Amino acid sequence: MPERSLADWLNLLESRHPSEIELGLHRLSVVWQRIQIEQGFNQQKTPLAITVAGTNGKGSSLACMQAILLEHGYSTGMFTSPHFLHYNERICLDGKPVADDVIIAAFELIESHCGEISLTYFEFGALAALVIFYQAQPQVMLLEVGLGGRLDAINIIDTDVAVLTSVALDHQDWLGDTREAIAREKLGIARSGRPLVIGEQDYPIGFEQMIAETGADALFAGKDFSYTESNPFAVNVAGPNGQFEIDQLAQSSLLAINKTVALQALLAAGIELDIETSRNVLQQVGLTGRQQQLNFRGVEVILDVAHNPAAATQLAQSLNAWQGSCVAVASVLDDKDWSGIVGAMSAVIGHWHLAEISQSSRASKGQYLLDLLYNADQKGELHRSIEEAFLQAVNAVTVDGVAQKIVVFGSFHTVALVLNLILAEVGSE
């Protein structure tokens, strides 16, 4: 039988497991234990691990950590999800996506140890990342929690530092319908006696007691470490030898809180950092789909994966500083609070271009998106595809002649489809 390509593997994994999401660690832990024993991973030194959970800000914080570590000469392995253009983006060594054959080899190894156990698409990918990292032995593993924390696949790793970036309503079907319930699930990544970096400053009820129950050594934003609201801004974080301060940091597409959390997590892990090197990195670091600015056919386009009301509020605040009118290209999956997203963005959007996400069975229906938009007294239209919605928005802005930005947001799928279209025409300059 011919070897499977990476695309073949991904198609197989998408179709094999009965559910896209199945929280729980038992099945994964059994397979991981089998692999560790057979590969001798349990006999070798484990890379330092930093695990990041949170409703928003996970990817930004991890991108900052990776960039800072690499500039200081540390080797890294980073696992994130989802991806934009290529699956390989999820698993990086020293900042570069690993090759197809490396992922395929990891998949084959996992498959040989599954036996009677069925793993989800995400679980297979998370386990593949761990296999690759344990084989490559980077000095630091940076691991993004996919959903929640307590029962997420990444939580099979006994993390050295846990990070909770934020707590907001999202994924209520799996995590609970209150911020209190969601916070408890996300705090499941904390470990007793080890650092826990908290970026959230608007605490849900009982939050401090929940943290105390973990037994972790908590560091709180606004208390143990902080940043200023100015531009440029300054950060003050807790280092092993006292306070670690960096000033003259320009506000950028990555929020100041996420840059601050990244610094605090690295220092909490015992990593030595240079102030000037860290400042230079944080001035330059960016991330695909996080207030990413591109130019397409002479029109300014902003790509942002804001897919819940909290993230949409942050995006709206950034857009509010711009004096012109904004046009939206948006769509979400059906577990998202579309009403809350529209409410957060309505003050900065003059016209909406909507479409149903054809790539996901969990997409919100296009007519539902449009009906709710009109119920909120917003103007918009429904298109046959995300790509068509974007091109129609570009054409309308170009004909209008008025300085307008197009803001593409609402889902990784939405942003990825538009990003693919832009790159196909203008390249990845």
Features:
six-stranded mixed β-sheet; 2 domains; 429 residues; 17 strands; Protein-Tyrosine Phosphatase, Chain A; alpha/beta; UDP-N-acetylmuramoyl-L-alanine:D-glutamate ligase
Question: How does the SSE layout of this entry go?
Answer:
Blueprint (H helix, E strand, L loop, with lengths): L5 H11 L9 H14 L8 E6 L4 H14 L4 E4 L11 E3 L2 E2 L2 H15 L6 H16 L3 E5 L16 E4 L7 H4 L3 H8 L8 E4 L8 H8 L2 E4 L5 E2 L5 E7 L2 E8 L6 H13 L6 H10 L7 E5 L2 E6 L4 H12 L4 E6 L7 H8 L3 E7 L10 H10 L4 E4 L2 H15 L3 E6 L2 H15 L3
Helix pairs in contact: 2-4, 3-9, 3-10, 4-5, 11-12
Question: What does this molecule look like?
Answer:
This protein has about 425 residues and is α/β, with parallel strands linked by helices. It folds into two domains: about 5-285, UDP-N-acetylmuramoyl-L-alanine:D-glutamate ligase (3-Layer(aba) Sandwich); about 290-425, Protein-Tyrosine Phosphatase, Chain A. Helices cover about 40% and strands about 20% of the residues. The protein contains 15 helices and 17 strands. It has helices at about 5-15, 25-40, 60-70, 100-115, 120-135, 170-175, 180-185, 205-215, 255-270, 275-285, 310-320, 340-345, 365-375, 385-400, 410-425; strands at about 50-55, 75-80, 90-95, 95, 140-145, 160-165, 195-200, 215-220, 225, 235-240, 240-250, 290-295, 300-305, 325-330, 350-355, 380-385, 405-410. Strands 4-3-2-5-1-6-7-8 form an eight-stranded mixed β-sheet, with helices on both faces. Strand 3 (about 90-95) and strand 4 (about 95) form a beta hairpin. The longest helix is centred in the first third of the chain and has 16 residues, at about 120-135.
